[in-house]
Amino acid sequence: MEKVKTILIWILFVAAIAAIIVLFAYVNVNTIPEKQFARYQAELSKTANTDTTSLNRENEIKALNKKLDALNKRTQRLTPGNAFLIINTTNNTFELYKNNQIIRQGRCSTGSFIHLEVDSTKSFTFETPKGVMTVQNKVTNPVWTKPDWAFIEEGLPVPPPGHSSRREPNVLGDYALKLGDGYMIHGTLYQRLIGSPVTHGCVRLLDDDLEAVYTTLPVGSKVFIY
Predict the structure, then answer these.
(1) Do 26 and 53 have their domain in common?
(2) Number of folded domains that form the chain
(3) Do 64 and 90 share a domain, yes or no?
(4) Per-residue pLDDT for the chain (226 aa), expressed as one digit of tens each?
(5) CA distance 212 to 214
(6) How would you list the strands of the sheet with 137-140, edge to edge?
(7) Same domain, yes or no: 95 and 48
(8) Where are the beta strands (DSSP E) in the chain?
(9) Of 33, 48, 78, which residue sits at a domain end?
(10) Residue 23 belongs to what domain range?
(11) Are residues 144 and 204 in the same domain?
(12) Domain boundary among 78, 105, 136
């Protein structure tokens, strides 16, 4: 009888082990596809996000290129076709352009911003005007017609208009480009001061630079002053 009990116990033990093995295999067999499907969904979502990000970046690049192209076209429309001059009154420098290429650059002198008080109703500030100006006339061996402030600055009586004392040759260099309202681009006797803000509003250049600007810019050329 004891022997039969022992055999039954072993049979039940083996059956339990077999049941556990079958259950474990069933769980794994049914779980593995679920894990694979979950992994597949994660990878698919990641790929979709990557594709969306790439598409957004591509659209942004296209939009930026479109804006850049529009700005380039606008710049070309606004840029003079032949030759023009740019004056930087902060750094007292210039750039001479021809066919949209810089052909010469260097130092210049612009307004000193000195304020000359005449009386309670009249004063002068020696500033180079900023904006877009035009070469209205070009002359060689220019003669300076001294304005009223030139005499007031020296403490001299102001002569009547057209008086011979107003005409002063050999002080503006070999060339002058007139910009209107008495403002000019010209040379100077005081070339060592070029690069400093010392003028009464005109733009002064060194002799070689002045000659290059004079020969390059025809009447009607634009001068950009900032």
Answers:
(1) yes
(2) 2
(3) no
(4) 555 556 656 555 555 565 555 444 444 444 445 555 566 567 666 666 666 777 777 887 888 788 777 766 665 556 666 899 999 999 999 999 999 999 999 999 999 999 998 888 889 999 999 999 999 999 999 999 999 999 999 999 999 999 999 999 999 999 999 999 999 999 999 999 999 999 999 999 999 999 999 999 999 999 999 9
(5) 5
(6) 137-140, 175-180, 183-186, 203-204
(7) no
(8) 83-88, 93-98, 101-107, 115-119, 122-125, 131-134, 137-140, 143-145, 167-169, 175-180, 183-186, 203-204, 222-225
(9) 78
(10) 1-78
(11) yes
(12) 78
Same domain, 94 and 195: yes
90 shares its domain with 202: yes
SS3 50: helix
Same domain, 179 and 125: yes
Radius of gyration of the chain (CA): 43
Cβ-count burial 122-148 (b if 16+ within 10 Å, e if not): eebebbbeeeebebeebeeebebebee
Is there a single domain that holds both residue 111 and residue 140?
yes
Tokens of 97: 């352009």
Instruction: Note whether 176 and 142 are within 8 A (CB).
Output: yes
Tokens coding 140? 């060689």
Give the tokens for residue 29.
Answer: 């067999």
